[in-house]
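Supplementary Methods, section 5.1.

A reviewer requested that the exact input to the structure prediction be made available. We therefore reproduce it here, unchanged from the version used in the analyses.
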Amino acid sequence: MADPTLFRSRLLAGEHLIGTFIKTPTTHATEIIGALGFDFVVIDEEHAPFDRLATDATLLAARAAGTAALVRVSSAAGILSVLDCGATGVLVPHVATAAYAREVAAACRYKGGRRGYSGSPRHAGYGAAGMWKTVEAADAATTVIAQIEDPEALDEIDVIAAVEGIDALFIGRGDLSVAFGAKSSDAPEVRGAVERIGRAARAAQKPICMFVGGREEASWLRDEGATAFVVSSDQGFIRKAAGQALAEIRALGAPAESTQAKTA
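The structure derived from this sequence is encoded cell-by-cell as follows.
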C-alpha cells in the first residue's frame, strides 16, 4: 500500500489512481475502503452530514487504514480546519474564476500562501515535528484540486488551470449538466465542456480527476486525459451490494412446503 504522503507526487506524475466518496460520517467505511486498497477517499463535507468532529475521526480512520484522504470542503473557509486535522488535501467546489483559484491555492500553502500556522494539530504531530519541518512537509504533500462545474468557469478555464498551487482539476459533470439543462452527463454540451476543460488542463500540465459510474465511463474519460477516478461512494456501494443480495435471495422464492401450507 502506497504511503499517503506520496499521493500528491503520484497524482502529479499521472499515475492511475482510484478513490471513492465517503458520505457516511463514521469511521468504518473508510477503514474498509482503505483496507481494500483504494488509493484515496474523498470525505464529502459539501453534500454529506460531516461536522468537524466527524471529519476529524474519519481522517484518523484513513490514517489507520493507510489511505490518502482528501476532503471536499463546502467553501474555502473550511480548508484550514481539515488540513490541520491531517487531510492529504482538499477538493474545492465551484472554482469558477482565476481569482478564487488563487485564493484556494494560497489557503493551502505556507510559503507563498496564507495558510495559518499551528504546531499543535495532528498534521504537525501534536507539537512534535517542529515549525519548519512541518511547513516543508505540508507544502510538499498537500494536494489542491479545483472542482470545475460552472459554465462561467469555461470563460477563464485556461487561466484557472495555470494558477500556481492548483495541482489538478476535477470536472463536475453533474453540476454542469444541471446548469446546461442537459438530459444527462453524456449530453453533447457536457461532453464539449469536458473536452474544453481537458484541453486547458493538458496545456497547463495539470492532472484531471473525474467521478465515474463504471468502467465504460472511465474508459472514454481516460481518453480525455483523466488519470484519477472517483468511483461511486460508500453509500453507493452499500446500496448496490444490498440490492444484489436482496434480489438473489428473493429469486429463490418460498420453499415448496411453505407454499403448500399456506394454501391448505
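The two ends are 60 Å apart (CA to CA). These observations are discussed further in the main text.
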